[in-house]
Amino acid sequence: MAGKRESNFINMVSTLLVVSVVSAMALGSVYNLTKGPIELAKQKKTEAAIKMVVPAFERIETMRVKSALEADSLVFNLAYRGDSLVGVAVNTFTKKGFGGEIKLMAGFLPDGSIYDISVLEHKETPGLGDKMQASKSDWAQQFKGKNPANFSLKVKKDGGDVDAITAATISSRAYVDAVQRAYETYLQNKGGN
After folding, report:
1. How big is the CA angle at 183 (ends 180 and 186), to the nearest 5 degrees?
2. How many CB atoms sit inside 10 A of residue 45's CB?
3. Of 32, 91, 28, whose CA–CA distance to 63 is shortest?
4. Among 96, 108, 102, 95, which Cα is nearest to 170's?
5. 87 pairs with which residues across the strands?
6. Are the CB atoms for 178 and 132 separated by under 8 Å?
7. What stretch of H or E contains 81?
């Protein structure tokens, strides 16, 4: 039978060191094992969002453009059928959400009107701010077919045309901010053309 180790400072530190090293190696291994599948899942989610927010297309050209509102950049996914541009899916964001950053994929037709919008990521309150997702409510339907040139991308409380989500005005404003960023960048870059 192994003898019990004496409880002194050096033994406690060495035991803690061994436990820390083993834990760090295990955590690093799990990270490396899951990094690829997580990235693949994000890529598939982005591809599905692009297909949802622009009309049917044959090919996509992706480019990064400087945001109209910040020094940051946005990703434009130009959708073509043959040689004709049928829409642009803009990977946009805002940092003004109640729960932090909100990421959207906003789809615009060549005339600038909104084809559809998909929520990619958010940390908004369940049952309130998460109603921006199509799977939670039909709130986002009010943007479809609207052209921001004559549809004010502000909530009605701020003098715009957008009905806010009940009890989630901050989330509504943030969503609109992300769409506005995408639209202004789209105009500034003439749809990426």
Report:
1. 150
2. 14
3. 91
4. 96
5. 79
6. no
7. strand 73-81
pLDDT for 145-170, tens place per residue?
999 999 999 999 999 999 888 888 89
Give, for all 193 residues of the chain, the pLDDT tens digit.
566 777 889 889 999 999 999 999 999 999 999 999 989 998 898 899 999 999 999 999 999 888 777 778 899 999 999 999 999 999 999 999 898 899 999 999 999 999 999 999 898 888 888 888 888 888 999 999 999 999 999 999 999 999 888 888 899 999 999 999 999 999 988 744 4
Instruction: Give phi and psi for 47, each to the nearest 5.
Output: -60, -40
Concatenating the DSSP letter of every residue in 68-104 gives SSSSSEEEEEEEEETTEEEEEEEEEEEEEETTEEEEE
What SS3 class is residue 36? helix
